[in-house]
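Feature request, filed as a ticket because there's no other form

It would be nice if the structure record came with a short human-readable summary line next to the tokens. Right now we just get the raw output. Example of a typical job, pasted below so the devs can see what we mean:
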Amino acid sequence: STMFMTGMQGSGKTILAYSVAVFQVLKFENEKVMKLLGLKNEPRYKKIVLFKPTNLVGGSERDQGYLPGNLFEKLEPFLRSFKKAHEQSDLEELDFEEMFAHPNREKILPKRKQDRINNFVYLPKNHEAIELIYSGHVRGDTLTNNIIIVDEAQNYTPSEMKTIIERVGIGSKLIVLGDYRQIDNKRCSPSYNGLVFAALAYQGQPYNLIANLHKHYRSLASLHARNLKP
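Raw output as currently delivered:
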């Protein structure tokens, strides 16, 4: 299934998507919590696969291959909104970086420091909870039984978005987030970008849902800034 969640800055796109996804990939051993969340004995999805464009504010770009460190270290500065969402998801006992840690791939990913979050919530046993993928490396992959989150989709070109969606395999759920008015990629515009392209292409499909968030949760100053023209 596919879902498009749009809305202005501060409308809650990231926190809603992350909160829904994270509890679908962790293992719970508390029947009351599982019943409340509508979960079964095993996680509903294998892991979260996160795509986030790396265009810097202002439109400049850097090839990730030239940045030092593993992929998480390269893209960590761009994950601030997801880290905030993690902190607001009742997972304060789990460091955000642990979501990207792999139990036995320390040279490539962050070293996992804990398997259990508390007495009844566990990280995936054999793999990371969140796989961070740079769009330039995705061609040829098939993403099966994952929750796939494409953040800031308006900063992907239609071609890049098409390549990402073509990787969606059986049993996966695709969640696309964005705001067509917040363009940081010089190759995109409010009318030409991956978010608008894909939302129009999938409009009307029986497995697709489009949600537009109208409320702003930051401040009047932030809301006013939306209409400023530098």
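Something like this underneath would help us a lot:
The two ends are 39 Å apart (CA to CA).
Confidence is low (pLDDT under 50) at residues 56-66.
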